[in-house]
Design brief:
Elements lengths: L2 H11 L2 H30 L11 H35 L3 E6 L4 E4 L1 H7 L11 H4 L3 H9 L6 E5 L3 E11 L2 E8 L1 H37 L4 H33 L8 E2 L1 H16 L4 E6 L5 E2 L2 H17 L6 E9 L2 E8 L21 H6 L6 H10 L6 E5 L3 E8 L16
Parallel strand pairs: 7-9
Antiparallel strand pairs: 1-2, 1-5, 3-4, 4-5, 6-8, 9-10, 10-12, 11-12
Helix pairs in contact: 1-2, 7-8, 8-12, 9-10, 10-12
Length: 422
């Protein structure tokens, strides 16, 4: 179009070739100038607004502008998608690692850094086999059989379950779940059944032996009396064990209990005082220091189990001549119950495990006194339902103290209706 005027003028006045040459050079110069403007906009200016154009350059500038808008929108959506993915991965309760099929890391979340010792972004591009030097883990990745998870023990105590899934072409998604608590619960379950079996097998063996003896020969006199007494003792032992197991399972399985029941702890302690003195039979000096007006809200059955176990333990497991002091008094933290004795005490290494099921400091002495190792476990769970915990302090050869405190909100205040709690 730009050459038509030059052609018309050239035909009219002459010099046609020169006019056409000048016209073509002008057109080329104009296009070159627009190319320079386009290049400056794309590589130097980089603003969203394109330069103004005329003729054929106007739709080109506008088309590039629209393409740039679409690309920016797509990049923004992709960036938002990646941020959402990473935010979701950070919220997961598992360690998440993204790697290539060769094992090169290109992203991991915070739990992966915490559990596996990875560093981000410092470990970007590092091979995970160079950072996690476990032979089982290396074999698991190299075999590429991910139908089953792999469980590893890392940092000497933490159990992690690894699952590997293809994430996209040439990439893997690794998920490591902390299953330490699950392993501990499984171990506790195995120990529990082993202990129950052992505790029941012992008296059953004794009973079976005496029954076989009585079947083979007629027992009379002192031998018969001893056999009957032993069988009765073993029967009572089994009955006590089954009763404590039922109590523990009932307390553990109980949902959130109703703490609106008024428990007359002073009256409960008066009954326990008579029982403790009968059980002691003068072997101990027992003193009760009780606030007669200190009643609380709670579950009477569970509080009775907790308090009676602590009192009976003090009588059963301290030697003759021990002074035992039981107190139920109010303090700044609430209602405090304490059983204190000046017996031989408990070594420090045993204190953290005393509330475990079937745990005994002295197994022979506990069995001799009829202890099952379940009493303090019952205490622990009963107190947890009252938002309290058992504190145990012991100085060998000086003093041992078992204490728990019920919060002020559980104290029944004189003058208020018994179904009203502050």
């Amino acid at each position: 179009m730009a050459c038509l005027p030059a052609l018309a003028i050239g035909l009219a006045v002459g010099y046609l070739p020169w006019l056409l040459l000048i016209s073509v050079l002008g057109v080329l110069g104009w296009h070159f100038w627009n190319l320079l403007r386009l290049s400056h906009w794309l590589w130097v200016d980089r603003t969203m607004t394109p330069p103004g154009g005329r003729g054929s350059w106007e739709p080109l500038f506008y088309g590039l502008y629209q393409m740039q808008l679409r690309n920016r929108r797509r990049r923004s959506e992709l960036r938002s998608l990646i941020m959402r993915f990473r935010s979701g991965a950070e919220s997961l309760p598992d360690a998440v690692i993204l790697t290539t099929e060769e094992g090169n890391i290109f992203w991991c979340n915070g739990l992966a850094q915490q559990h596996l010792g990875l560093r981000w972004p410092e470990d970007n591009g590092q091979n995970i086999l160079n950072l996690m030097r476990y032979p089982e883990f290396s074999r698991y990745l190299r075999q590429r059989d991910f139908a089953r998870p792999l469980t590893l023990v890392v940092n000497h105590h933490r159990h992690l379950e690894f699952r590997v899934m293809p994430y996209s072409e040439g990439q893997w998604l690794m998920v490591a779940r902390d299953v330490t608590q699950m392993h501990q619960l499984e171990g506790a379950r195995r120990n529990f059944f082993a202990n129950v079996s052992h505790e029941l097998r012992t008296p059953l063996t004794v009973l079976q032996g005496y029954l076989e003896m009585m079947n083979d020969a007629v027992l009379e006199g002192r031998a018969r009396a001893k056999a009957l007494q032993t069988m009765q003792e073993q029967t009572r032992r089994m009955d006590s064990l089954v009763g404590q197991l039922l109590t523990l399972s009932r307390i553990e399985a109980a949902p959130a209990i109703d703490l609106s029941e008024t428990v007359d702890v002073p009256a409960m302690l008066r009954v326990l005082q008579r029982e403790a003195e009968t059980l002691s039979n003068g072997r101990h000096t027992i003193h009760f220091n009780t606030d007669p007006h200190l009643r609380v809200f709670g579950n009477e059955e569970q509080l009775r189990s907790a308090i009676s176990n602590l009192v009976y333990n003090a009588v059963n497991h301290t030697p003759e001549g021990t002074d035992i002091e039981i107190s139920w008094l109010r303090n700044a933290q609430g209602a405090r119950f304490c059983v204190k004795d000046n017996g031989p005490g408990i070594a420090a290494e045993h204190l953290p495990r005393l509330t475990e099921r079937f745990y005994r400091v002295d197994k022979a002495r506990s069995r001799a006194t009829g202890g099952s190792g379940l009493g303090l476990a019952i205490v622990k769970h009963a107190l947890s339902h009252h938002n309290a915990r058992l504190d145990i302090v012991s100085v060998p050869q000086q003093e041992t103290c078992f204490t728990f405190t019920l919060g002020p909100r559980l104290i029944v205040h004189p003058g208020l209706p018994e179904n009203t709690r502050r």
